[in-house]
Amino acid sequence: MEKSEKGSVCVTGGTGYVTSWLIMRLIQSGYYVNTTINNNLDPEGASFLEKLPNASQKLKIFRTNPDNPESFRPAIEGCNAVIIGHSVDFEDKNDEETKIQRAIAGILGILKACLDSKTVKRVIYTSTDGAVVYVTGGQDVVDESSWSDIDFIKKLNPLGAVYSITKTLIEKEVLNFGEKNGVDVVCVNHAWVFGPFVTPQCSIIVLHNMAMILGNWTNIEYDYGVISLVHVDDVARAQIFLLECPQVKGRYICCNANLTPDELSQFLTARYPQYQIPTFDCLKVTKAFKSPRLCSKKLLDAGFKYKHNLNDMYDGAIACCKQVGLL
């Protein structure tokens, strides 16, 4: 079949919450997509991707081993761009340092495959705000110049500490590799991604942000400071924007909602009176760290425009949670 003018994009880790939505948007935008899934995933685990609109014509699925970067080469071959979106595997029984080094080696191997392909023009690495926010200066607002302090993360030991440490270290290696080898690398530091989903099951991230509605908020310790959120569709749109915009470079924070746990409680109470939302006084709030606001001015200055607000995030998430029987 004849390729579209936009060409092909490889998205690693296609069964994830963000990546599956991204694949859907890439296809809608006219791209052909190669995506990778873990080779030990049950065959049915990726079947929902094949049911996405136009997937039968525009999507190819490749089985890969994250510990063997060579296995990604067939998926990368012939692609104009690669979006690295697969999550780090923390399920194995190796020690923390071994897991981190394996993850770094795997990503660098994929970058080497991109370099060798001769067709890949840009690589987008999906990072996280966890590589930005954990700073010791007590800043109220952080931007792309901020890098999380690894020792500080270890001391705080917040939710997802190893994830934030790994993402921080990988992101530095990715940018360094790009600079040394002439690979056009862009990193997306997104806030907590939230909203609807096309995956058959609700992701952990959505469950976390739905806690005040679903009733499992008693299991969550909220940060003193702000909760930073971004709609899943805006993350996908931002990645496509950064894929297509010629002049972008380096890191880009993607976030369009910063609010305190108290403000979130008040918002949910006012918008969804049918649910029993806890008041701020009922929440577990840690004062060990005051999470700063995320500034996405760099992304906006590049020409990107957010499409969705907090209402859209929760309306979409609630609708999908109803579809899978959580509400």
Automatic annotation (TrEMBL):
Keywords: Flavonoid biosynthesis, NADP, Oxidoreductase. It comes from the Eukaryota. Residues 9-247 form the NAD-dependent epimerase/dehydratase domain. The keyword Cell wall biogenesis/degradation does not apply. One of its GO terms (molecular function) is dihydroflavanol 4-reductase activity. It catalyses: a (2R,3S,4S)-leucoanthocyanidin + NADP(+) = a (2R,3R)-dihydroflavonol + NADPH + H(+); (2S)-flavan-4-ol + NADP(+) = (2S)-flavanone + NADPH + H(+). The keyword Repeat does not apply. GO terms for biological process: flavonoid biosynthetic process. Bifunctional enzyme involved in flavonoid metabolism. Belongs to the NAD(P)-dependent epimerase/dehydratase family. Dihydroflavonol-4-reductase subfamily. PANTHER family: NAD DEPENDENT EPIMERASE/DEHYDRATASE, VESTITONE REDUCTASE-LIKE ISOFORM X1. This is Dihydroflavonol 4-reductase. It comes from Anisodus tanguticus. The lineage of its organism: Eukaryota, Viridiplantae, Streptophyta, Embryophyta, Tracheophyta.
